User: Fold this.
Amino acid sequence: MIFRFAIFISLGSLPSASWAFPYTLTDVQTANVHEHLPFGLPSTGELLFRQGYVVSHNNWLKIPNWTAYHLTKEHVQGNIPRSNDFRPDLSLKTYQRAELVDYRGSGYDRGHIAPAADMRYSTTAVSESFFLSNMTPQVGEGFNQGIWKDIEEMVRDWAKERGEVWVVAGPAFEDTDRVMSFKLLGPHHVAVPTHFFKIVLSKDAEGTLHVIAFLLPNQKLPTKDLPKFITTIRDIEEKTGLDFLNELNDGLEEELETKKAPNLYFW
Assistant:
């Protein structure tokens, strides 16, 4: 069963990364943050640490706020087979997590945020990508199985060409006159995003940072229209309340967050 849910929001009061951690990170978790999020933590809250990625999980909407990972040329060359072991994340309490039944018969795909194909360097990393805490309901044909998959393949190509990239991706919700409306799936009321974002960063030989960002509606889209969905990090921040690149100096952060990549090839 699909429910519709609406909330009133105040865009000026959304949480930001300036919040203090509500808990202490272990040395391993701290190292994980430094590897996957060297340019800043978009938000705090409940973080889940996996071998291949870090996810900020929304225990109310039962989907990620964002998932971040470092992808290298060596990672992309991995050949561990896809595990397909879709499963709930038992590190979350029952009332905080999505279950397989929520997606069953919904008409939506269990869409990875950190793709399994990017984790093929490790059996554990591949398997952990199939936790439902790394997934959101996505339109299947033409989105999860189309344009979103094509972006994922482009990111792997960029990692091969550039040696490494950093990716942050997640859901977004469109509001009209400060009213946000979206569907809920299944008995555990899993939120269906209206949009998805993906931010990719890389460094050139001189260490200069380059960025490309996308914001796409969760609907069937032709891949040829992908350039239309190139946007700025600032636009994504305004729609999500997240704060990216906050570890950079203010001038560089402003430059990168407000600059729109000219195309898919030179950014």
